[in-house]
Design brief:
- This is Transketolase.
- Keywords: Thiamine pyrophosphate.
- Belongs to the transketolase family.
- Its cofactor is thiamine diphosphate.
- By secondary structure, the protein is α/β, with parallel strands linked by helices.
- The chain has one domain: Thiamin diphosphate (ThDP)-binding fold, Pyr/PP domains (Rossmann fold).
- The chain contains 8 helices and 7 strands, in the order ααβααβαβββαβαβα.
- Strands 1-2-3-7-6 form a 5-stranded parallel β-sheet, with helices on both faces. Strands 4-5 form a two-stranded antiparallel sheet.
- A hairpin with a 2-residue loop joins strand 4 and strand 5.
- Helix 2 runs parallel beside helix 3.
Length: 269
């Protein structure tokens, strides 16, 4: 797909995500809205995947380290054909496999269980290292939150990736400037992220992570070093009253707010 087509799909995914979170009465809608453009570009353009063969050995690997935004991943996977879109109505319901955090034992297309922050990048480094050891040519992508980058385990993984020369690894930091309860700047401010990653031996690209014209080429870049994309995004992207508001990390819209958001996202289709 070309960027304009990807933008249209991303708008559809945002709308379905809103509907699923509202119906479930729970979710992490702010961070889901910020990361959806990246997920759309990955699954509808960049990743080498086979939805009817989710474990095919040649597939690229994707790890959603910020696993609390699972609903956005589920909507993307369903729209890409990994499972029926009708199943999205079971999100967070009793006995549903669409839990609040992705489970690789239950949901096709999920590579590893995530949720405890700081775990996804170390696992992705292991995947990329395994490809080097076995001679496989798949590429590994991982998306973290910016608040998540406060975890020391991520920086150990970053050091290891540089040491092992993992140029088959792309880290995307969803830099929406907010985490649970506060702004990044008021918690443990890691910004600017670029010089820190470069000091650890990574190649770094900074982009507007909600602009598909910038997202696609950054994800498709290949170089000689591990690659980090610092994606500057907006929490609650696409919904006016949610954007850049910390309370929408895990707040659920009431009926009036839902109708406003539904109208805004529907108008953009």
């Amino acid at each position: 797909m070309q960027p304009k087509e990807l933008e249209r799909v991303a708008r559809q995914i945002r709308l379905r995500d809103l509907q699923a979170v509202y119906a479930a009465g729970a979710g992490h809608i702010g961070g889901e809205m910020s990361v959806i453009d990246i997920l759309t570009a990955l699954y509808f353009r960049v990743l080498r995947i086979w939805p009817d063969e989710p474990k095919r050995p040649e597939r690229d690997r994707f790890v959603l380290s910020k696993g609390h935004t699972a609903c956005a991943l589920y909507v993307t996977l369903a729209k890409r054909g990994f499972f029926a879109e009708d199943e999205l109505s079971t999100f967070l319901q009793p006995h549903s496999r669409l839990n609040g955090h992705p489970n690789c034992n239950k949901v096709p297309g999920v590579e590893t269980n995530t949720g405890p922050l700081g775990h996804g990048l170390p696992v992705a480094v292991g995947m990329a290292k395994a490809a080097k050891l076995s001679g496989a040519d798949y590429h590994t992508y991982v998306v973290t939150g910016d608040g998540e980058m406060q975890e020391g385990s991520n920086w150990e993984a970053i050091m290891a990736a540089a040491q092992f020369g993992l140029n088959n690894l792309t880290l995307v930091i969803d830099h929406n400037r907010f985490q649970q309860g506060a702004a990044l700047s008021d918690t443990n401010d890691l910004a600017p992220l670029r010089p820190k990653l470069e000091a650890f031996g990574w190649e770094v690209t900074e982009i507007d992570g909600n602009d598909m014209e910038q997202v696609v080429p950054a994800l498709e870049h290949r170089g000689s070093l591990p690659h980090c994309i610092v994606a500057h995004t907006n929490k609650g992207q696409g919904i006016s009253f949610m954007q850049d508001r910390v309370e929408w990390h895990h707040k659920v819209p009431n009926k009036q707010q839902y109708e406003i958001a539904l109208a805004e996202l529907s108008e953009a289709l």
